């Protein structure tokens, strides 16, 4: 029994889930005493750049098979970055602070890149027609 059949439904579930995570993380970030918004902005800009222009350029220049292999490498690097962030949090004595800042910044950057892709980027560069 498939609850989510179409691509549109899957995207809706994905963005709704990420929105709930961003909301809960944002509530925790607001409560932190030294304001971490500059760090959130740095991570948001970095993520928007990675999921925006870099991804669009890769989609335009590489065939699907190479992009798939590259996605495995990128996933491994992302997992390595998670352990680095956890280590920095443990060294600083506030692992949840670092995780919240990174997660919120990444979700904001991903949302901005997705909105820009849907609003501004032509259909050929989105990768939906390939």
Give structural notes:
This protein has one domain. Helix 1 (7-31) crosses helix 4 and helix 2 packs across helix 4 (95-119). The model has no long low-confidence stretch (mean pLDDT 84). By secondary structure, the chain is mostly helical. It has helices spanning 7-31, 37-61, 64-92, 95-119, 123-126. The two termini are 29 Å apart.
Helix content: over 70%
So how many helices? Answer: 5
Count of all domains: 1
Largest pleated sheet: none
Strand content: under 5%
Low-confidence stretches: none
Radius of gyration: 17 Å
N/C terminus separation? 29 Å
Mean pLDDT: 84
What is the number of beta strands? 0
* Overall outline: globular
What is the chain-wise order of helices and strands? HHHHH
What would you call the structural class? mainly alpha
Keywords: Membrane, Plasmid, Transmembrane, Transmembrane helix
Q: Which properties best describe this structure?
A:
globular; 130 residues; 83% helix; membrane
In short:
Keywords: Membrane, Plasmid, Transmembrane, Transmembrane helix. This protein is 83% helix and 0% strand.
What does the secondary structure layout of this molecule look like, with pairings?
Blueprint: H1 7-31, H2 37-61, H3 64-92, H4 95-119, H5 123-126
